Amino acid sequence: MNSPLYIKEVKNKADLKKFIELPWMIFKDDKNWVPPLKIEREELLTKGKNAYFEHAIAQYWLVFNGDIAVGRISAQIDDLVEKHHNLKTGHFGFFDCINDQEVANLLLETAVSWLKERGRDEILGPFNLSINEETGLLVDGFDTPPSLLMGHALPYFENLLLDYGLAPVKDTYAYRLAIVKSKMPPAIRKLVDRTFANNHIKIRPINMKNYEEDMKIIMSIFNDAWINNWKYLPFTKAELKQNIKDMKMLLRPDFTYIAEVDGTAQAMMVTLPNLNEIIADLNGKLMPVGLFKLLWRLKVSPRFKTVRVPLMGVRLEHQNTRLGGALAFGLIEKSRQVVSAFGCTDAELSWVLEENTRLSKMLETIGCVKYKTYRIFSKEL
Question: Does domain 177-373 have CATH number 3.90.1600.10?
Answer without folding.
Answer: no
